[in-house]
Amino acid sequence: MSEPFKTLTSKTLTLSQANIDTDQIIPARFLTTTTREGLGAQAFYDWRYEADGSPKPESVLNRIDPAEHRILLAGPNFACGSSREHAPWALLDYGFRAVISTEIADIFTSNALKNGFLPIVVDQAVWDDLAAHPEQPVTIDLEAGEIRRGNAPAVPFTVESFARQCLLDGVDALGWLQAKLPDVETYERLRQDSYQPETA
Hints:
One of its GO terms (biological process) is L-leucine biosynthetic process. It catalyses: (2R,3S)-3-isopropylmalate = (2S)-2-isopropylmalate. By secondary structure, the chain is α/β, with parallel strands linked by helices. It has eight helices and eight strands, in the order ββααβαβαβαβββααα. The strands form two sheets. The chain has a four-stranded antiparallel beta sheet with strand order 1-6-7-8, with no helix packed on it. A four-stranded parallel beta sheet has the order 2-3-4-5. It is globular and about 85 Å long. The chain has a single domain, classed as Aconitase, domain 4 (Alpha-Beta Barrel), CATH 3.20.19.10. The termini are far apart.
């Protein structure tokens, strides 16, 4: 599905606005595809481009290198609105791999975890501290379950255990099940070998 997520070290991009909904992440008019590739070009499109398609120079999203800012530090109630799976697809294709916020919409969280994108909820003090140091790289260590930055104390976070394992392995739920196929086949073979039909 995606490359395994174990640790990620990156600068953060702060979008502090509250209630950034999925239509802002990727406008509905671009939901004409069922493939994930290429949606990064439309991520935050109305924030990044004028009506004629020219880039907005004032947009911070046009002034960063996405390869250096792979962690989005978002305002509260991030990704509210519709349940479109295109939202995490667009964020991943743009270059983000994780979002940190004080509140993330439940449906987006579910979609994100199924697609290799890590949502992390922290308290306001941690968010404020991260926002105050935008150029200092942040390390997200999924195996340890903590966020680290410079000499600051590590911040623990939790992810639902099955989703965490899928992220660490770089698979989705179906990929995880397919990896268990040899065990399933062995079980079925042993079960059939031990089956003794009743006779009258």
